[in-house]
Amino acid sequence: MSKIRFNVLTFPGSNCDHDSYWIPTIRGNNAEFIWHKDSYLKDPDVIIIPGGFSYGDYLRCGAIAKFSPIMQEVIKFANKGGLVIGICNGFQILTESGLLPGALMMNKHLQFICKHQYISVESTDTPFTNLYEKKQVIDIPIAHKEGSYYIDNEGLKSLQDNDQIVFRYCNEHGQIDLEANPNGAIDNIAGIVNQKRNVLGMMPHPERASESIVSSQDGKTLFASIEKWVKERL
Amino acid sequence: MFKAKIFVSLKQSVLDPQGQVITNALHSQGFDSVVETRVSKYFELLINTMDIEKAEEEVKNICDKVLANPNTESWKYELEGVK
After folding, report:
1. Which residues of A touch B (CB under 8 A)?
2. Which of A49, A44, A33 has the alpha carbon at shortest distance from A97?
3. Radius of gyration of chain B (CA)
């Protein structure tokens, strides 16, 4: 059977692209880097837009990246139903590009946070989370200064009504409250999908919690979910 | 040519944590009359046209498409003629 193909974008300032390449690779998939100036993808099943500081975060996080040649191809791929996952800066790029609603704002306390964070899996009805249990509490690291998810009330209601909130910040017991919210995100949102459920954006880094040498391996299930979903359709 | 002076600000409904910290700092320095601070971005663009209507249209497009994020920010501008 042919391998699942991951394309990992690299912008000037991306710094999680090698982790995002490494994890699919050690899991037996094919992975390719795609440079931001490229105008074609390499026949992907899944695209990862990795974390980092694309174009130095100038203007707004992700604002310049959305104009890059490769993002026009990513938008076409997503609109055809292709799987896209944006992690951290990748999530910011997805909202700036209009592939996901809302925006990522500066953390409420203005500090850069880098730590392990519990999140609750709020929806398992996605290609990215189908092997988790609903309400499963997982430990996935976060590392950001501009990760406070914001959307207006109407948009929030639409996310809630359509089961688009995939991850919420919580404590180790799965309690979702202000105390467990690291950055001031509205409704403790850590990750969402689009209405068609093929585009995921999340601030936590599953690629930093997916191999045995690191303390949490809770991100493995996300990659396993993607692989299962794609294999069923190959 | 025209010089466009563009202000991009967070919408009133959006929390401005930097503004809150600045307000606190101002209070600590005795500027007690300050009740709120909103932080904005300011851009100056030189637009190479003699036609003010064209310059206005260009600036509006630039604000909508690039300089501001319509989800969280609003913008306003002034145009002044330069030689």
Report:
1. 59-60, 63, 67, 95-96, 101-103, 105-110, 150-152, 184
2. A49
3. 16
Checking if the pLDDT of B83 tops 90, the result is no
Q: What is the pLDDT of residues B31-48, one digit of tens each?
A: 999 999 999 999 999 999
**A117, amino acid identity:** Q
Residues near B65 by beta carbon (within 8 Å), at least 6 away in sequence: none
Angle, alpha carbons A89-A37-B68 (nearest 5°) = 50
Given this model, what pLDDT does residue A234 score? 76
What are the backbone angles phi and psi of residue A20, rounded to the nearest 5°?
Answer: -70, -20
Kindly report, residue by residue over B45-72, the tens digit of the pLDDT.
Answer: 999 999 999 999 999 999 999 999 999 9
Q: Which residues of chain A have pLDDT under 70?
A: 1
Q: Which of A7, A58, A60, A59 is nearest to A36 (CA)?
A: A7
To which H or E segment does residue B75 belong?
A: strand B73-81
Within 10 angstroms of residue B63's Cβ, the number of other Cβ atoms is: 22
- Residues of chain A with C-beta less than 8 angstroms from the C-beta of B71: 95, 101-103, 150-152
Topology (CATH) of B2-81: Mth169; Chain: A , (3.30.1280)
In this structure, chain B runs to a length of 83
Nearest CA in chain A to B10: A105
Query: Which amino acid, residue A209?
Result: A
What secondary structure, in 3-state letters, does A185-217 show? CHHHEEEEECCCCCEEEECCCHHHCCCCCCCCC
Give the CATH H-level superfamily of domain A5-231: Class I glutamine amidotransferase (GATase) domain (3.40.50.880)
